[in-house]
Amino acid sequence: MLEKKMVILNEEGMHARPAGAFVKTANEFKSAVEIRANGMSKNGKSLMGLMSLGLAKDSEITLVVNGDDESQALDKLSFLVQNKFQL
Amino acid sequence: MLVGKNASGGIAYGCAMVIKTIIIKIENEPATDVDFECQRFQHTLVAAKADINKLYEKVKKYVGDEEAQIFEAHSMLLDDPELIDTVEGFIKTNKWKASKAIDEAAKQFITLFESMDNAYMRERALDIKDVTERLLKKVLGLNFQDLSNLEEEVILVAHDITPSQFASLDHSKVLAIVTEIGGKTSHTAIMARTLEIPAVVGTKEATLKIKNAENIIVDGDSGLIEIKPNAQKLKEFEAKKKALLEVKTALEKIKNVPVQTKDGFALHLEANITSAADVSSALKNQAQGVGLFRTEFIFMDRSSAPTEDEQTEIYKTVLEKMEGRPTVIRTLDIGGDKNLPYLGIPKEENPFLGYRAVRYCLHNLPLFKTQLRALLRSSPAGKLGIMFPMITNLEEIIACRKLLEECRAELINEKKSVSNDIKVGIMIEVPAAALIADLLAKHVDFFSIGTNDLTQYVCAVDRMNENVHDLYDSYHPGFLRLTKFVIESANNAGIEVCMCGEVAADPKLTDVLIGMGLTHFSMNPASILKIKDRILKTDKKEAKIKAEKVVTLSTGEEIRNFLNQ
User: What parts of chain B have a pLDDT lower than 50?
Assistant: First the structure.
């Protein structure tokens, strides 16, 4: 299991488009993906889950990835967050 | 034969598509076979996804990428593990049937999204509602009628058509529209006229009496509907259609003739629009400007008000498309029969006499200022007029103008460009304002007479109330006298006067209004050429005599008879 603390950088926060991009990418991997924020934990492969976290710009999140391809998954997903959800 | 109200002219013959209001009945009894319910749910997901993907492809191809994106999001929601797990959890743990589980899961997510602070997120509740409703209809085997993808030309028959349904219609496939409720000034009627689709509204029991796939004739001029017409009726239909086409061809010929009376007095014919998309039909009919852009439509069918940027973009588009022609944009006219749930206007006993339009806006400054700022920011793109609706007294005009100046100062401070040539005007639709038109004229650049509301207020008639509908009469001498006074007051003060209600598009009154001194007519684009034809045939001097005569007659009936001579 790998963990990484990150900050949401894009202006509009975790809206449909960024959340959609994240979910699409998360689904490319076999590993389970989880996002923890504001004392909640949500499935990173769920659009509704992510959006219901209500993440605005500057929100702190923890990415938790667990599975066979966890290191590749963490790399790609953290790059996505870092790069304001543009691949 | 059925009788309704003639809401949009023209005649059509075709196959009826009856839209039944679908009632979703959730299965509340416990599930007997949990595995079966899970399977049912899975099948529903697959079927709904196939539908949505088809919709996505079609909208992408025929409408555009941006419009299609909504369906991509819907498709993703159907794949969502949170949604799927919640529904399956409900089925397994609570022994619920699939429809109950979907409904409860939907409620849970909708509540969650609706409770968020962020307006954008609240909007997403609508997407979830849309998707889960689709699932519910599928799982219960209810027919899903998607009006944006009509395969063949049809005549739509429905209880009512909402503005958003209307907007999503594939207009090229709709021959005519029949609804059970609504009047000539309802939104369905207004939009049908803009798009030149024949419509009959207020047709009682239309969805019961007309069967799906039956052939019907809809006459939008008389308000008559013929079900399964015989050979004789069809012959009459063909003859009428031919006659209408001839009139249309004749009107086409006057398209490029200047708008002036026989004796050379120039007039202005402008269009009423509800969206940027309507501009093309305005220009097609040679509108010389926009006399009324009803902005409330851009506030409808959403869960929060459009932002300043969104509004700026829309107003700018309209101004650009109008290419320097005068364009009057009316500030939010909400309340009355047009409510927006997210504004939280309480239900009122007398909404038409209540908290509406400028009355509401002046108490809700953030909303009002957002719109005024957007209008000012769009102003460099064209020739803008800003119009305030439902003005009752001079104090309101002063308050509105002061706010506008405040917004202008703010924007200049923020280094945003604002035009120096913006006209500011008011709607004359409250009798008290009409009666002091001479005094108000000193404070504005133009008047626009809103005849629908003015008639309703002058005659003290709720135009939606069937029992008193007959008293609503724009030929009432009281209404015509007041109109004359307003026009003369504007002319004496040297300001522009426009008429933008239904009366402006009534060819029987065109010469009378010209005789009273009206210079600007604004109407649905489809009526422009018809009124132009009347203007070309009018002699201003004769019209003046006619106008003087009309206001001496004592009843609406007498006036009608006189004008029919």
Answer: none
Q: Give the burial class of B432: count Cβ atoms within 10 A of its Cβ; 0-12 exposed, 13-18 middle, 19 or more buried.
A: exposed
Question: What pLDDT score was predicted for residue B113?
Answer: 80
Task: Give the C-alpha separation, B559 to B551, whole Å.
Answer: 8
- Single-letter residue type at B44: T
pLDDT of residue B165: 65
Give the pLDDT mean for A24-53.
89
Going through B97-214 in order, the beta strands assigned E by DSSP cover 154-158, 174-179, 199-201
For residue B122, the chain A residues in CB contact (below 8 A) are: none
Residue B295 · residue B332 · CB < 8 Å: yes
Beta strands in B89-234 (DSSP E): 154-158, 174-179, 199-201, 215-219, 224-227
- Residues of B with active-site annotation: 187, 500
ipTM of the modeled complex: 0.72
**Sheet of A40-43, strands arranged across:** A2-7, A60-66, A32-37, A40-43
In tens, the pLDDT along B197-229 reads 999 999 989 999 999 889 999 999 999 999 999
List residues bridging with B215 in a β-sheet: B15
State pLDDT tens for residues B131-141: 888 899 888 88
- Strand, helix or coil for residue B231: helix
Contact B259, B514 (CB under 8 A): no
Those residues of chain B whose CB sits closer than 8 Å to some CB in chain A are 72-73, 76-77, 80-83, 109, 112-113, 116-118, 120-121, 124, 128
The answer to whether B39 touches B231, Cβ cutoff 8 Å, is: no
Q: Which residue does chain A place closest to B128, by CA atoms?
A: A48
Q: Does A32 touch chain B (CB under 8 A)?
A: no
Could you say which residues from 64 to 83 on chain A have a Cβ atom under 8 Å away from some Cβ of chain B?
none
* pLDDT score, position B25: 87
Which among B76, B83, B120 has the least Cβ separation from residue A23? B76
